[in-house]
Amino acid sequence: MSNEMHVPLLLDELDTVDAVYVTPASSTVAILGSGDFSRSLAMRLVASGFGVVVGSRCVRRISPGLFLDAVELNSQEAAVAKAKSLVFMALFPEYYPSLLGLRSALAGKILVDVSNAVAMNSKQRSNAEQLAEMFPDSVVVKGFNTISAWSLQTGAQDGNKQVLLCSDSAEAKHEVGQLARRMGFYPVDVGGLCCAQNLERKPLHLFPSWRGPVLTTFLLFFFFYCYGFIRGILLPYLAYGHNSFYRLVLDLVNESMPCVALVSLALVYLPGLFAAWLQLWRGTKYQRFPRWLDAWLLRRKQLGLLSFLCAALHGVYSLCHPLRTITRRRLINAAFSQVKSGVEMPWDEQDVWRTDLYVSSGVLGLGVLSLLAITSLPSVGNILTWREFTFIQSGLGYAALTLSVMHTLVLGWNFAFSSQSYAFYMPPSYMLAVALPCAVLVYRCFLLLPCVSAKLARIRRGWESTRKCPMSQHHREQVNRTVPQVLVGQSGDNDDAVTG
């Protein structure tokens, strides 16, 4: 009965039969090193039903209570001796040479290297390959280096579920993979030990898919901010001596943020329109898109989230606008001027409608954009069907873009037709920002025409034009000539099903 208490409650279906008969003595895993990763790894292994012994150079320096009571703390030699086959190397690679004295004790065991690279552009061999050279009688498996200590403590429910493994031994990878499954993770075989360098560099990448979108957003903000500064602050100061540099902190930022959000949202849907145009022009979907378009399509989610960030910041800045000192002074001066001129309640019907429509379309656009941002999260998107996800990201996405364009156009109202709006022959920032979104919406409406949408749908279902696939058309003619009439109809139906 005591042995049954050490069997984990949750087992993977692939190793249920074997795990029931595993005893703690036969499933003892050694961990060399007593750092944070070692403590988290030991905690997860104990929770999965393994016996764990931690080997340290100096056991006395380990504080009481740092490890679970079920974890045995011992010297490195004793830890290796008690391990059945698996030994985790949870120490920095520069300390690997200090284990050369354990070469005979580690012979025949599987060494799981969990280290990461120090630099991205290092020309040295991977840590795992160096470890395999130091211990030729052992089998080295690279893995668990992309799993954080937090994920090990909380389990696979919170964090990355994949454990990437590489080794020159298929048996060793299988054994480590079975251990990862019992810990609640999904092992992924990425090849031989030659792939270890890529795995070691993987945790060093800092948001690789966000670099282009972040740079694009920053350049857009820099452009609109500099444009607004030159048009609204610098040139009036040089020409008329008007000092309005106080606008640099809030006003100019609040004017630039919606422009960036609008253009970024248009850039989310522009590559899809390019892809549709290429498919219509080529008459087939079986030709690869250019690399720049592929990269652009893969970065749409990041651009959309950055657009939502800029729109949310614009909303917060707008709510803070009445709290400013300059706003209160302007209200006081306007009220004083009205009292002095004897005006009790000035009413501007046009301005009232413009303001209400402007605020309403902006709030609705931000609300739909918030829904797009929420469904972009993996935890939310994974529970949606493909049709639901497409409806939200495409259908509601264009609705958000339309509302944002309405928000901008209602703001402009008739200002675009006034010569006073073109100070120093420069149009307002929002007129520059609305050009690309309007072009995207116009082209989207063109794709919705029945004649165009029907052809695009046929292409995406596999149909190809005769100039792209003449052999299939010639083959159809030959079939119609040689096959009896009853079979011709069947062959034609099948061919239509293939070509769309």
Automatic annotation (TrEMBL):
InterPro entries: Fe3_Rdtase_TM_dom, NAD(P)-bd_dom_sf, P5C_Rdtase_cat_N, STEAP_metalloreductase. One of its GO terms (molecular function) is metal ion binding. Its main location: membrane. It comes from the Eukaryota. Keywords: Copper, Endosome, FAD, Flavoprotein, Ion transport, Iron, Iron transport, Membrane, Metal-binding, Oxidoreductase, Transmembrane, Transmembrane helix, Transport. One of its GO terms (cellular component) is endosome membrane. Belongs to the STEAP family. This is Metalloreductase STEAP3. It comes from Ameiurus melas.
